[in-house]
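Thread title: Can someone regenerate the structure for this chain?

I was given the following input by a collaborator and told the matching structure tokens would be attached. They weren't. Posting the sequence so someone can regenerate them.
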Amino acid sequence: MAEIVNHLKSIVNRMLKIFGLQFKNKTLYIEDFYRFFRFTKFAFMIHYCEFITLIEQKMKSIEMDMTQGSLFKKIFIFSVPLVITNVLQILFNMTDTAVVGRFAGYLPLGSVGSTGQMVFFCSGILTGLGGGVNVLAAICVGQKNYKDFEVTVRASAVACFCIGILLLVAGIFSATGILKLLNTKPELLHDAVVYFKIYMLCMPAMAMYNFGNAILSAQGDTRSPLLYLIAAGIVNVFLDLLLVIVFKLSVIGVGVATVIAQYISCILTLRKIYKVLSKNNFDFKYRQISSYKILQIIKIGVPAGLQNAIFAIANLFIVAAVNSFAAAMVAGNAATMNGDNLVFNIMSAFYTAGATFIGQNLGAHKKKRILNSYFISMGYAAIAGFVLGGVLFAFGQEFLSLFTKDQTVVDYAMQKFKIMTFSFGISAFMDGTIAASRGLRKTLVPSVMVFIGSCVLRVIWVFTIFAHFRTVESLFLLYPFSWAVTAVFEIVYFAIIYKKETADM
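Best answer:
Regenerated them for you:
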């Protein structure tokens, strides 16, 4: 521990030294920035890699056997690093909105917030794809079929990278058109387009991070991805403050900071994958990629990703409805989305745990543990949703003040919070069941149900209930209603496929 502390002190001292040189003269010069860049690129990264290696030595990952032992304990232990990991991922965007909202104003905050659903759409596809990789890899680990595991790793890497590139290209070329289609306020449009295009540059990195995270999690290692996101998070916060406050780059600054942070987490994760696979005698020489395995990944991962995308598509109509209010409401919605995403991502850690445990136990033919994994992981998620929702409601004013100093924006945001904070736990019954179905390798039918329940239903709600009342409350009540309706159908479907998939166990 003392060694770790000393490394942290050394890093901080180096940063302070650089800043001391810059702030001493009260003016930032090109030469100063070049010295800073050279420092961060070489000295900092070298020192940081040493720090990472040191922690890895202190906290060696252990492959968790999910087919034996207490499920309550193991699911919780497995989920905690995932919870922290997901929180740190959200902190990327939260830092962006907090820094922009407090130091650049509510208009840049609204611009960043206007891209939220499109960002969620793209990242949701990659998250779902990673979920598919995780399930297939977990089944291989449960079966102790390491040859098939190697094939899965190769195919997953290719599939994830290619889809990351496709999202990058599509996002950059369609940014302006999509944001106009969403009725983005004219005063917000330019900065929103700029931020979204910059953010799209991190799609390949995000894709490969999700690939690495899925492979490591399937083996029971959820600690390493956490460590690497801590590293990236520190860099993200540091660069946000530097680029927005010092260099006055506003939305450009937060976008660039997020991209750099995402690539750092990607590189560190791939580095870990290489070390783990090398230790297990993985052959890194060129081998033919299994088209069958890629199709399996697409079959499981793409529908799962589309589920997330469907939520985003449905929410696009909500965004369009929000944009019909004043710009202050748009900014308020952007601020509350940080709370929404924080809670949902904490809950999703338990869904990932449930799918992974179900996958391993499916491979090991442990029927009872499959069902218990479903109930326990969903229970943890529901408790987290209700508790965190209550905390956000109680401290809503304080939380929102992190992102804006405008009381009008806060007042608008609290109208939404009054509904959402008591509804989060309801979503666990839908999302937990969807994840459990994914663990059983079934994603197409759940995707159709999500489309009907959470997309079609929400669109109908916007054009009927909301169109009639035109209030904030009438808009956001659609969330708990759609979650509850969809959950009923998802649970019935899971009961059917569970009985079918475990019939011979």
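The mean pLDDT is 80.
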